Amino acid sequence: MDREREFVEYVNALAQTLGHADRVAPLGDYCRGLMLSGGRKSVEPMAALVAPRRASAKHQSLHHFVAKAEWSDTQMLAAVRGAVLPALGSIEAWIVDDTGYPKKGNHSVGVARQYCGQHRKQDNCQVAVSLSVANERASLPVDYQLYLPREWAEDPQRLRKAEVPANVTFTTKVQLALEQLQRARAAQVPAGVVLSDAGYGNDADFRDGISALELTYAVGIQGSTTVWTEGHEPLPPRGHWGRGRPGTHLRRDRTHQPMDVKSLAHELPGRAWRGIRWREGSAGSLASRFVRVRVRAAHRNEVRDEEWLVIEWPLGETEPTKYWLATLPQSIALQELVRLIKLRWRIERDDQELKQELGLGHYEGRNWRGFHHHATLTCPDYDSI
């Protein structure tokens, strides 16, 4: 089957979610515009690419389709999953991520001065939280939502102007990610180990939420995160000394404290560290030094389940560079544990391609619906079908 026919059949499968037959042609035009080489993938230049002799009329059609038409991006992503997942093969990971889109002005929905990963600093941008399924070959976004900073979520006038749905309220990025995991679980998306950076993994409630969904995780944490090493745990409750009620809470004292993972890394002997190569990169094998230790996370003086603490300390560095907590099986080999942890590279590379090749951050409208519609249509990996 030639690629043009495959593309048409794929778009027709997605069109089943649109609700109206007159939206099918604009869907095909929009998807084709995203795939054509050229400059920005916003409505006006795409219209000129797909219909150079009718650019003005096509511009109006595409703008209405992406910014005004009432089709469901949730249903569209479900159709994408149904079409693309069989082509991806076995799913190894669910990757939680957020992406920043630099913006000028303050009218685009959700724009605020906040951390922008693209610029690696605080900047004026929009930020969206996403969940992708992945293996070594490819990834596919299965959920995607704009994060609304509190200054937006608590400003009714701005919300009305940007046409934000009434049921959208202030929700932290961590909570958005947990809701996405819950939706994927409910939709019976093939399970994988949940991966995230420390912006999510450092939150104990996020880790607990993953476990409550009966999923495993391997998530980044900060060096200041504290843990109980093997054989150590909080002190038992205080005894009853004849007055008042006996203690019920586990406790610590000045000499009985958990250890931060950075200090723990410095105490480990040199023989504990192992050189691991986890994949071939564009410039050769990717390798570093790692160690893993069984620990219990120190949180609210609870006695928590043991899990893996994994630490990376490359040769030549004066300090460890990365830390992770993982609930993967105790029997897993360190080589495989590191390979799964490092699978986050997949989403980082694919995010870059979505931005550069399909214009993920190029939408120039200001409303909630248009932002999500555009992002939904850039998410499908057309080359994977």
Features:
385 residues; 14 helices; twelve-stranded mixed β-sheet; elongated; alpha+beta
Q: Approximately how much helix is present in the residues?
A: 25-40%
Identify low-pLDDT runs.
Answer: 246-250
Terminal Cα span: 12 Å
User: Count the helices. How many?
Assistant: 14
Average pLDDT score: 89
Rg from alpha-carbon coordinates: 24 Å
SSE run = HHHHHEEEEHHHEHHEEEHEEEEHHH
Which oligomeric state applies?
Answer: single chain
Shape field: elongated
Report the β-strand fraction as a percent range: 15-25%
Sheet having the most strands: 12 strands, mixed
Structural overview:
There is one protein chain. This protein has 385 residues and is of the alpha+beta class. Among the domains are: 71 residues, no CATH class; 127 residues, no CATH class. It contains 14 helices and twelve strands. The chain starts with a helix and ends in a 7-residue tail after the last helix. About 1% of the residues have low confidence.
Please write out the topology.
Layout lengths: L2 H13 L8 H12 L7 H8 L4 H14 L4 H16 L4 E10 L9 E5 L4 E14 L4 E8 L3 H4 L2 H6 L11 H14 L6 E4 L1 H4 L2 H9 L4 E5 L4 E4 L29 E2 H7 L6 E8 L2 E14 L8 E7 L9 E5 L7 H8 L3 H13 L10 H11 L7
Parallel strand pairs: 1-5, 5-6
Antiparallel strand pairs: 1-3, 2-3, 3-4, 6-12, 7-8, 7-10, 9-10, 10-11, 11-12
